[in-house]
TrEMBL record:
Lineage: superkingdom: Bacteria
Record key words, sorted: Amino-acid transport, Cell membrane, Membrane, Transmembrane, Transmembrane helix, Transport
Homology family: Belongs to the binding-protein-dependent transport system permease family.
Organism expressing this protein natively: Ligilactobacillus pobuzihii
Protein name: ABC amino acid transporter permease
Subcellular location: Cell membrane
ABC transmembrane type-1 domain: residues covered: 17-214
Stretches that traverse the bilayer: 20-41, 62-83, 196-216
Amino acid sequence: MWDIITYSLPQILSAGVKFTIPLALIAFAIGLALALVTALVRISHRGGVFVIVKGIFRFYVWLFRSTPLIVQLFIVYFGLPYLTIPGILENGVKFSPFIAGIITFSLNTGAYASETIRASISSVPNGQWEAASSIGMTRGQTLRRIVLPQAFRISVPPLANSFISLVKDTSLAASITIVEMFEVSQQIAAENYQPLIMYTLVALVYAIFCSILTVGQNYLEKRTNRHLNQTEGE
């Protein structure tokens, strides 16, 4: 058994460094930016044509929260190549496995994280908007200077949990041939006929990664809440 572990572990860790971690980091960064835009659009009070834009973003959130992630991966990677439009998309829309994974995970993360950010912004008391308006601040200035900093502190725990979940969800990328950690464990299991050992080993690697991220989450929460602790101490 130890021979299997010493042979397999370096390959699994290498796949984690090359694919799992970059896939999670890039997708989360893009998804977070998309989530912020989506949340700001949805809380906007603008009317007119902007209502259509809000409807589009609302539909996007509904779509990605209502369908399984693995189905989304299959649609982007296997389905879009069949989306042919004569004269425009003769060969469909084709992406490499890694790019397809980035697109899908980013869109999925953006949909879920947007609700977290929207809820965090909404949790800031309306009195702060009114107080800022009374001293001449515009809605945009109030949002940047007062509301978003508070919303960031509130949203840190759920967003950190979303990132940890994303790291685990990257195992689904094996279904579109991305050679991440789970895919490597499957390949080795097919060679040595020891699926229990291989899947347990890769599960432990995921557990270690997520445990490290949990420590980082706890540190970030303490940092963002340090001024509250100081106020309570006073």
